[in-house]
Amino acid sequence: MHDYETMHIGIAADHGGFELKVQLLDALTSADFRIKDFGAWELVDGDDYPDFIVPLARAVSEGEITRGLAICGSGVGACVAANKVPGVRAALITDSFSAHQGVEDDNMNVMCLGGLVTGSALALELVQAFLNAEFKAEERFIRRLDKVAVLEKGKV
Question: 92-113 pLDDT, tens per residue?
Fold first, then answer.
């Protein structure tokens, strides 16, 4: 279990994830999480998910943010964009097992959600599983992540 006073959460969404972002932001703020909002700050139909997701992903990669929540309509675009930033391990999550297992085994640091396909109650459950999980750091998991790091450096 993490110390929520030291965990710094980032959240970002485009128009497709805006409503869910607002709901999660309210819930997490009420639960005393430290949260940085990377936008969108107002609903603008047709805005572009990379404009919000990439700054969030960079903040995670640079260590400014402990864990990120990236939301677009389906969650797919947010996941694609976040994973282009070196050091980010993002996944589109739709179930509680993957929300915690992705952190425990794969050191996932950005969880992507689909604002048009995941209801707010389920999303909050997924976020709680994600934020409560800790990387196991077992040799086999580290070995696998080392192989992924080689891919990021383009040495394939």
Answer: 999 999 999 999 999 999 999 9
Contact 53, 86 (CB under 8 A): no
Structural domains of the chain, ranges and CATH numbers in brackets: 8-152 (3.40.1400.10)
Cα 134 to chain center, whole Å? 14
Instruction: Tell me whether residue 72 is one of the annotated catalytic residues.
Output: yes
Please tell me which residue in 12, 70, 72, 78 is annotated as part of the active site. 72
Q: For the chain, where are the E strands, in sequence order? A: 8-13, 34-37, 67-72, 90-92, 110-114
Tokens encoding 75: 């969650």
At residue 1, the pLDDT reads: 43
Q: What is the DSSP letter of 66?
A: S
